[in-house]
What we know:
The chain is of the alpha+beta class. It contains four helices and seven strands, in the order ααββββαββαβ. The chain has a domain at 42-166: 2-Layer Sandwich (Yope Regulator, Chain: A), CATH 3.30.1460.
Amino acid sequence: MTRLLAFAAALLASAALLPACSQSASPSSERRVCSALTGIDAARLIKIMRSMDLEAEEATYDGSAAVRWNLHGSRSTILVLSEGESLQFYVALIGSGATRDFVHDWNKSWRYSRSYLDGDGDPVLELDLDLAGGVCEERLKDWLTTCTVAFDKWVELMPEAGAGTPSQTVKPPAAPQPSFPFPPVGSPGTGT
């Protein structure tokens, strides 16, 4: 009985130390709390972008709110979609020499973005950010940085890089293609 009580006391003492150890050793326990953005309008987005020294101005596209972003001399657009719950970065280059192989290799090799050739054969780069459910302002700033890094790398790797001119006539799509609420292929009810 004494042995059992000693074991129980040791177990309780070690259990009391466990949370303190795991807090100091675990990076996930050092999370900051922020006020989450569940939506944003163009004016607030521009204010955040300007706080990062990014050149941005309010615009509209097909009646939807948008932000025109001068990204290293190229005209890009951020569409504010789904009543501010979704953002889409969009840039197209005219006459760049990009091929389907370039687009395929980009999509195979690079995360967080997608590239395609539009109806005129010009390459397009897009990145999306879903705000539904809430994201911190720091996450939004990180997404803007990701857009910049992806764009710079995309232009650097593009065939005949620099031959393309910033898009002045190619316009972004009215809305991104929905991926939800459609179930993935092979899910119950899809018939595949």
